[in-house]
């Protein structure tokens, strides 16, 4: 609730919030409209005053501008008259200056012509001097060229002589290489590389490899086979090194030259199929290659694989064999462990075989036992039915016997006079009774 006091009588009274808000709104609205009208009227008066002042200023500025324009026109007319006089004076001065300039120009032209003549003479002297200098230098150059030509002839003759010597040395080297190749061809190409390697191995087999086996790979069950297999054994008979060999050679007249990489994949497959640890390609291919010059390890492409030249055949076997000898004890223990594992595996396999065989026999016996029991049950069922049939037959026989025992002539002839008369006739006559 809000308390309001009348400004005229001083009476105070209270009104609620809604009434108070309505009253405030009315007061504010009336005051706002009154103030708005007052401000609009004041703005209208200010606008009219501004318009009048602007009109007065514009008229004054127009009068001042007209006066200034009239004064400027008068000034320009006076200046124009003065300019015309000055123009005529300037034209006369220019004409005089042009005449003086023409006189100076002619004098300058004459002076320049004189200097040009002097320059032509100097140029001719300079050209003559330059020509003589050039001719002198050309003579010196020709002398130098002659000297250089003589020196070049001397050098060329010496170079030809040295070149001839080098050619002779190279021809001699080529002849020696051809002779060496011919000797190698007799040993390796004509005899075949395989026979050469086998011969080289057999020469040292007894001394260097007494427990080793080296022979041709004749097992082609996997589709392919290598050339030779080397296996070496310890004194206990444990294999500790195995190498699959492939020998490749070709004549110089071959139309298609093979490369060593063409045979690595097949060699790796043969190594894995035959259970060999290492694979070695003995090759005379790519004779000019800087890669295959001795023993080349290519295990970056195929594991435990090397490419060797024929002269390193025994060396690579000895190298790999000596490296593997340190593993003989380990491999013997591993072989023993494998045998033990094989024994345990065989025992377990035998036990499993016994269990499976026993299980099969048990299943077979059980099936036969069940079949016999079923047959017995079926026989008992059939005998039971026979028994019931026999019991039924006995009952029927008993009834028939009772019926037969109960059957009499009287029962048969009862009501049948004909049959009764017949039976009477069949009865014997009775003897008379004694008196």
Describe the structure concisely for a colleague:
This protein is α/β, with parallel strands linked by helices and 435 residues long.
Describe the structure.
There is one protein chain. With 435 residues, this protein is an alpha/beta fold. Helix content is 70%, strand content 9%. It contains seven helices and eight strands. The chain has helices spanning 17-189, 193-208, 264-273, 313-325, 328-406, 409-413, 417-426, and strands at residues 2-5, 12-15, 213-216, 228-233, 239-248, 278-283, 295-297, 305-308. The chain has a six-stranded mixed sheet, sandwiched between helices. A hairpin with a 6-residue loop joins strand 1 and strand 2 (12-15). The longest helix has 173 residues, at 17-189.
């Amino acid at each position: 609730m809000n308390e309001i006091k009348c400004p005229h009588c001083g009476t105070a009274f209270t009104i609620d919030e809604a009434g108070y808000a309505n009253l405030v709104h009315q007061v504010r609205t009336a005051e706002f409209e009154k103030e708005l009208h007052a401000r609009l009227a004041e703005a209208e008066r200010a606008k009219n005053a501004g318009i009048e002042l602007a009109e007065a200023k514009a008229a004054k500025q127009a009068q001042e501008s007209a006066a200034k324009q009239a004064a400027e026109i008068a000034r320009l007319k006076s200046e124009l008259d003065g300019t015309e006089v000055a123009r005529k004076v300037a034209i006369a001065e220019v004409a005089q200056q042009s005449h003086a300039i023409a006189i100076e120009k002619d004098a300058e032209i004459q002076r320049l012509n004189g200097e040009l003549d002097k320059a032509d003479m100097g140029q001719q002297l300079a050209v003559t001097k330059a020509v003589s200098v050039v001719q002198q230098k050309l003579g010196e150059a020709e002398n130098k060229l002659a000297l250089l030509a003589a020196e070049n002839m001397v050098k060329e003759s010496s170079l030809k002589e040295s070149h001839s010597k080098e050619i002779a040395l190279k021809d001699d080297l080529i002849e020696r290489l051809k002779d060496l190749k011919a000797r190698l061809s007799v040993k390796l190409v004509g005899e075949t590389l395989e026979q050469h390697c086998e011969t080289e191995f057999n020469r040292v087999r007894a001394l260097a490899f007494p427990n080793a086996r080296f022979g041709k790979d004749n097992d082609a069950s996997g589709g392919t086979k290598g050339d030779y297999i080397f296996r070496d054994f310890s004194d206990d008979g444990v294999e500790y090194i195995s190498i699959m060999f492939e020998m490749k050679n070709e004549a110089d007249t071959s139309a298609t030259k093979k490369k060593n990489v063409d045979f690595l994949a097949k060699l790796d497959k043969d190594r894995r199929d035959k259970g060999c640890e290492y694979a070695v390609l003995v090759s005379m291919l790519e004779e000019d290659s800087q890669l295959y010059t001795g023993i080349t390890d290519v295990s970056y492409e195929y594991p435990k694989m090397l490419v060797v030249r024929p002269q390193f055949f025994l060396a690579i076997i000895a190298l790999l064999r000596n490296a593997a000898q340190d593993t003989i004890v380990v491999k013997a223990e591993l072989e023993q462990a494998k045998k033990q594992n094989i024994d345990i595996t065989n025992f377990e396999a035998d036990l499993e075989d016994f269990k499976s065989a026993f299980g099969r026999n048990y299943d077979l016996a059980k099936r036969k036992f069940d079949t016999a029991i079923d047959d017995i049950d079926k026989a008992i069922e059939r005998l039971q039915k026979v028994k019931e049939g026999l019991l039924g037959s006995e009952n029927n026989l008993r009834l028939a016997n009772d019926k037969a025992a109960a059957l009499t002539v009287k029962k048969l002839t009862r009501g049948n006079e004909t049959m009764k008369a017949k039976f009477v006739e069949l009865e014997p006559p009775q003897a008379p009774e004694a008196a």
